[in-house]
Amino acid sequence: MADGEAASNFMDAWAAVCKGVPLAPVLHDRSALMPREPPNPTFDHIEYRKPTPKPESGEAPVHPPLVRKKLHFDVEMLKRIKSHAVKADDDRGFYTTFESLTGHLWKCVTQARGLTGEMETRIMVAANARRRLSHPVGENYLGNVIFHACAQTTIQQLIEEPLSSAAGLIHTAIRSLDNEYLRSAIDFVEVQRKTPVARSRSTVMSPNLSITSWVQLPLYKLDFGWGTPVYAGPPWVPFEGLVMLIPSSTQDGSIDAIIGLFEPDMAKLEEICYEAS
Question: Which of 138, 144, 164, 206 is the most exposed, fewest CB within 10 Å of its CB?
Fold first, then answer.
C-alpha cells in the first residue's frame, strides 16, 4: 500500500505531530499511475514473468530452515567492491556503489546456493518511479510507486564473468525504466491483474534474487522529540532470496544487507561475501 518513501514521509509526519510542527500536505491523487485506455503494453516485462514450473514430484518440496542475517559492508569494503566493478573498456569507467554492491551480492548468493550451468538467473531491483514518469507523482504522495528493473543472464556467465559484467547488466536495467517503459508496465499489470503475483512466506526466489534499497531514506534523522534512532531497519525478511539494503547505524556511509536464505546457503554466503568479486 505504501513504498519506502511514503512510509518514511508518514513517519516524518508522525514525528512532526508529536513536536507540534505544521504538516506538509499529503497527496492521494494517483491519476499518473492509471493505465491507458485501452491498455497497450509495448515491452516484454520479464520482471513479471513467472519462473518456469518445476517438475511435479507429487510431494511438497522440503526446504532447509530459512535464516536471516545482517551483513555489514563498511566504507572500505564498499570501495573495494566498487573498484572491482570498474570496466576498462567501458565509456562510463565506473558503476555506482549500489550497482556494484548489488552485482557483488547477486554473484555471491548464486555461488552460495551452489547453482551452476546454463539456467537463467534474474535480479529484480526495486526502483522508485516518482521522478521517472513524464507526469511525476508528487513528493508527498502516500502510496506505492515501486517498479522493478530486471537484469538476467545465465548462472555460468554470472559466476565466470567479472563483477563489471553483473554491474553493467544492473545499470542497463535501471536505466531502461524511462516513462515509455513504465507506462507499458502499468498497462501490462492492468492486462494481467487477474493473475496472482503476490509473494508469501513460502516464496522461494532461487535461482533469482530480489533487492530493495532504503539507503537513501533519512531513517536516522527521524526524531519524535527524544532523539534519533539507535537502529532503523525492517523487522522481518519474509522469504528466501530477498535482500534489503539499509544505511548502517554507524552512519558513516557503511551499508547493511539484510538477507533471507536457506541455512546452508547462508553459511556459505558468510564465507565468501567479503571477498571482492
Answer: 138
Are the CB atoms for 3 and 128 separated by under 8 Å? yes
pLDDT single digits (tens) 179-225: 999 999 999 999 987 666 666 666 888 999 999 999 999 999 999 99
Task: Decide: 116 and 155 in contact? Cβ < 8 Å.
Answer: yes
Q: Output the pLDDT for position 143.
A: 92
Burial class (CB within 10 angstroms; exposed 0-12, middle 13-18, buried 19+) of 253: middle
- Domain CATH for 8: 3.30.559.10
In a domain, 236, yes or no: yes
Residue 39 domain flag: no
Computed over every residue of the chain, the mean pLDDT equals 89
**Segments forming the whole domain that contains residue 168:** 4-29+64-272
Q: Is residue 91 included in any domain, yes or no?
A: yes
Instruction: Examine residue 25 and say whether the peptide bond preceding it is cis (omega within 30 degrees of 0).
Output: no
Considering its fold, how many domains does the chain have in total? 1
